[in-house]
Amino acid sequence: MSLLQQMTDLARCAKLASRQLAELSTTEKNQALKAMAAALAACSPALQKANARDLESGRQMGLNDAMLERLMLDDKRIVAMAQAVRDVADLPDPVGRILDDRTRPNGLRLQKMSTPIGVVVIIYESRPNVTADAASLCFKSGNATILRGGKEALHSNQLIAAAMVEAGRSALGDRFPASAIQVVPTPDREAIPALLSLTQYVDLCMPRGGEGLIRTVADCSKVPVIKHFKGVCHVFVDRDADPAMAMSIVVNAKTQRPSVCNAAETLLIDQTVAARWLPDIAAQLATRNVELRTDPVALALLRSRTGPFPLILSPATEQDYYTEYNDMILNVRVVEDVAAAINHINQYGSGHSDTIVTANEATARRFLAAVDSAAVYWNASTRFTDGGEYGMGAEIGISTDKIGARGPMGLEELCSYKWLGFGTGQIRT
Amino acid sequence: MSLLQQMTDLARCAKLASRQLAELSTTEKNQALKAMAAALAACSPALQKANARDLESGRQMGLNDAMLERLMLDDKRIVAMAQAVRDVADLPDPVGRILDDRTRPNGLRLQKMSTPIGVVVIIYESRPNVTADAASLCFKSGNATILRGGKEALHSNQLIAAAMVEAGRSALGDRFPASAIQVVPTPDREAIPALLSLTQYVDLCMPRGGEGLIRTVADCSKVPVIKHFKGVCHVFVDRDADPAMAMSIVVNAKTQRPSVCNAAETLLIDQTVAARWLPDIAAQLATRNVELRTDPVALALLRSRTGPFPLILSPATEQDYYTEYNDMILNVRVVEDVAAAINHINQYGSGHSDTIVTANEATARRFLAAVDSAAVYWNASTRFTDGGEYGMGAEIGISTDKIGARGPMGLEELCSYKWLGFGTGQIRT
């Protein structure tokens, strides 16, 4: 059987499964999820065995220690994975929400109701827990999932999916479609373009991982893709900021967890206050070993600074302003005013998360309106852009796209909608 | 200058314009729209002159009469076009709506607010009034538009856009960005893939027209596309229907305006009532010259029917069930029950508009839940799927996609959203 034929079968089965999923009640879905969580916990020994095979071939493939560490499943990780599935069962059902309700002059009542999307392809890298996370979020939102993890995790991923499907069937019998959760069974790279050419069956693709992976997927896909690109996030310290608050937000946004997409990469500071506040901010960052890449004005302000922790300074290149460091490095640029800060962010940012620190409401409102990003904050750290922090319970990623979903994607963002029309025989005249 | 360079300049200017549009107030936008409406009406003679050039070269290109008729602008059409722009000014501003509002335990307030999408490319065929319609809807929703009409309408389209831009500038001065409304200046077909490769500037493409055009655009585009595909719409007459209502809805859905996408193409009727009701429905359709393409069971029921208006009958092929006739032709199929009707619709339909006629609420609820279409009706004609009928005021099209917008797309559907976070210094711990 050709690869395209194999992918077509997979996708066609997923589409049929999605029809059945659309008819499951909330109670049924939650029953199945609880059974899945129990099954994952119960199959921990078998899962660790499958994972050991993946680790072994990973070593042979020459994966580095960090990659092997991400790939590894132990008891603790499996318990956490099962608990995450149980948590999804406890979240409200995102399907069937009435988003609009209007009755027209002719008496026709129109309701806009949230629905599943249909068939969702998730493409991701090493961590096998993504398999359970993504599958449970998609299942709860009534979507059939086709999962494509890293080839190094294939055995682990297949066993996780199989355990979830078996648990679903034991909980719901034939009401649970066996193709609700599928793992692409081949590591062949050509499987991805084949699968993403099937617009008649696949409704959405979400790649999660490095920028290269996402660009490759988006480039080859004929189905809609919601991209979760990099986070080049900014803190703008306005002239009317409270300096202590500014300090605290800059330090938090950069250093609390520098490896994640909502960490700040660039500090912008208003020229009126830069001379007064920047040296102290820089000194504080130096205590945490943050390297600063600065524009000439900031460099001049900081160069002579001495203290117990020496500053690590170098001039910023234009490319630096586009870069997601995911590391203890921060660009620093002195800007003329809020308008210049907005322009910088819209030019160099990635539309992820940006914040202004100011006590001036008019300035803040302008910043909130003009910065074209998924999340724009006033007097808060960029680090809050996260499904959990937003009260969504869990997230499948953070979209930097503007069509379909933007920002943290929880269960509601895994839904589409349809219009229901309730008539009493209305015809159009 | 290469075509790609030319398109890049166009798109970059549009992106910059979209930043300025995002900062316009509702009052400013409405002022500009009213000035545009007045300008279109005022330039009627010049517009008819440009249109005469288009008509002349259209004749030389060998356009048929129907195409020339669609292309033609006269006083009446220009007045209607101007009025449509004025109507958009009177609609509520879709930007700035608060779609969600939550305060987290840490005091961080999160508001989900509607925003413009950014840069929208509209690709369409003959009618020049689409230029003014699309440009005004995009402008009101804060989006910069790049318009690509049929090459036969280039002069008319360019003059319409120029008149609108000039009016915008005279109303708002420098606050109105000259690149808010642009027409692709070349008829070169390669302009489309060039423009739709510019993911850094273009946020969305909406092709409007025949299936071939839409597929070509979707195939070459690297930016998100919202497709407005064909309407293969169904009426299902359930065993518990009121027969008079069923008759009225079938006749309306098929014959009231057969050329449009929300007209019905297939009648499904429950086997329990087919023998009793189908002959009368067929006879009524015969009075309106509707040709019936029937499955064997319906054919057997109808073959012996005589009357003043003879039935036009032929057997339906499987391909017929997939076909949008846009004509006085209706497929007729007898189905076992509501489940079979749902399966038929999900298999052969285009996810546009489908209706059930029944007095049985449980049957209706099942149909509404399971039919995977943009609009699903209970006891109403499929013909209601329309921005005007939905109270949206105007529509830019009817999406058969599930990501971004589904069903009629009015001003609200031309929006994205962002999250605003209002803090008092919150940091993440």
Name the quaternary structure: homodimer
Look at the helices and sheets of chain A and give the structural class. alpha/beta
Integer-rounded radius of gyration of chain A: 24 Å
Low-confidence stretches of chain A: none
Helix content of chain A: 40-55%
Summed up, the domain count of chain A is: 2
What's the β-strand tally of chain A? 16
Distance between the termini of chain A: 53 Å
CATH superfamily descriptor of the largest domain in chain A? Aldehyde Dehydrogenase, Chain A, domain 1
- The CATH class name of the largest domain in chain A reads Alpha Beta
Which strands sit side by side, in order, in the main sheet of chain A?
A: 10-9-11-8-7-12-13
Our count of helices of chain A gives 15
- Biggest interface, residues from each chain: A-B, 71 and 70 residues
Query: What number is the mean pLDDT of chain A?
Result: 96
CATH topology of the largest domain in chain A: the name is Aldehyde Dehydrogenase, Chain A, domain 1
Strand content of chain A: 15-25%
Molecular structure report:
Two copies of one chain form a homodimer. Chain A is of the alpha/beta class. Chain A folds into two domains: 3-227 and 405-422, Aldehyde Dehydrogenase, Chain A, domain 1 (3-Layer(aba) Sandwich), CATH 3.40.605.10; 233-384, Aldehyde Dehydrogenase, Chain A, domain 2 (3-Layer(aba) Sandwich), CATH 3.40.309.10. Helix content of chain A is 43%, strand content 20%. The first copy, chain A, has 15 helices and 16 strands. Chain A has a seven-stranded parallel beta sheet, with helices on both faces. In chain A, strands 5-4-3-6 form a four-stranded parallel beta sheet. Chain A has a three-stranded antiparallel beta sheet with strand order 1-2-16, with no helix packed on it. In chain A, strand 7, helix 10 (243-255) and strand 8 (264-270) form a beta-alpha-beta unit. The longest helix of chain A has 19 residues, at 3-21. The first copy, chain A, is globular. The N and C termini of chain A lie far apart (53 Å). The model of chain A has no long low-confidence stretch (mean pLDDT 96).
